[in-house]
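re: ur question from yesterday

yeah so i grabbed the chain u mentioned. its 289 aa long if i counted rite. heres the sequnce exactly as i have it in my notes:
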Amino acid sequence: PHKGVNPDEVVAVGAAIQAGVLAGDVKDLLLLDVTPLSLGIETLGGVFTKLIERNTTIPTRKSEIFTTAADNQTSVEIHVLQGERAMAKDNRTLGKFHLVGIPPAPRGVPQIEVTFDIDANGIVNVSAKDLATNKEQKITITASSGLSKEEIERMQREAEAHAEEDRRNREKIEARNRLDGLIYNTEKILRENRDKISDSEAASLDSALSRAKKVLESSSSDTADLNSAFDELTHASHRLAEVMYQKTASQQGSQAEKGSTSGGGARAGSGKKEEEVIDAEYVDMDKNE
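ran it thru and got these structure tokens back, copy pasting raw so excuse formatting
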């Protein structure tokens, strides 16, 4: 027998059930509302980062931790968006607000908790809290939908039509952000440990950093260029880590050998009575590191 769904019959049954609910005849039926489009915020590079996916049943709540993109950044802008496109500029703005008073710190250190809370009426509350100070700002969006069925469907069709283009754009932005983060961390490590490596080793890493920066700053760099520069700098930074590890291990070995020789000499030259032996405190070098 045919088991397909008759669209006309489905509509008729749905209308009958809805009428029964409104009339109070249908008791044991729960109607669930969902978010028609995804909700999220703009993040580094103009990317749309989703916190609430479309078709999520409401009420719902979701939190994620974000951080700063620059050293000593004391405020962040929370740009609330609705849509399905990968880039913020291609989605619908619902609101903006600023969280200020973040203590100055290196980028990536502050922890900013962003929370989306949607109640049963579809009212969206978005908050941003600095976890170090508990300072918080929030915004309430009462017309998070405010879109007709036709507008929602149009936005969904646009997202599908531009899916491949959006994927490429997002991959390039993410590759750029990844390379930028590696450059920042490598420069920091080199700055703090330059005196522990040879001039030639430092020069080699400086050259790798220079090439990576050139790729990062070039408007013609594509995703492959950015990923290649990332791999090259990763290899150079790993080489720095290896050199530092070897030197640290060598220094610890020399100190351990010196301590062993000193202890042996004391025992060999000792002609004291047993009760005159003085206990020594031995330092665990690994723990001190």
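noticed a couple things. Helices lie at 7-23, 149-161, 163-193, 199-217, 223-268, 285-288. also The chain has six helices and ten strands.
anyway ttyl
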